[in-house]
Design a protein that fits this description.
Elements lengths: L1 E5 L2 E5 L4 E5 H28 L1 E4 L2 E4 L2 H13 L3 E4 L5 E4 L2 H29 L6
Antiparallel strand pairs: 1-2, 2-3, 4-5, 6-7
Length: about 130
């Protein structure tokens, strides 16, 4: 395998093929990949922060884990205690209302994330390089 350099391109020679890679295109692709990854991280962080809800003077995350815990506890008791995001106990006296709030916020935040994700996918298309 031979690798030769010529100003703005790299020539890669292998026994079966020769590939010419434009350095500028590689840089653009690398920058785009970084921007897409950063955009996704930012969108996920925004979604997670939007999932925080206040209930009975406590903070909870409206994620799948919390929703599943509430559904499980609700199936076995009319009222129960659970820990909030700061590990403080909270008395859940109306599990139906709490579960409804959790699911609504979860779906709102996921819908927002889905829209941001689609925008990121469009931006990150290899055709844009």
């Amino acid at each position: 395998m031979d690798i030769g350099k010529n100003k703005s391109r790299v020539v890669h020679t292998h026994s079966h093929s020769t590939t010419i890679l434009d350095i500028d295109k590689l840089k653009k692709y690398s920058d785009l990949a970084h921007d897409v990854a950063q955009g996704k991280r930012n969108a996920l962080e925004k979604m997670r922060s939007r999932q925080i809800i206040a209930y009975n003077e406590r903070l909870f995350r409206a994620d799948a884990e919390t929703i599943n815990v509430v559904q499980t506890f609700k199936a076995h008791a009319k009222e129960f205690y659970m820990l909030d995001v700061n590990d403080n106990p909270c008395h859940i006296t109306n599990p139906d209302e709490f579960l409804k709030l959790l699911i609504e916020r979860n779906q709102e935040s996921l819908n927002d994330y889905q829209q941001l994700f689609e925008d990121i996918k469009k931006k990150g298309s290899i055709r844009n390089v």
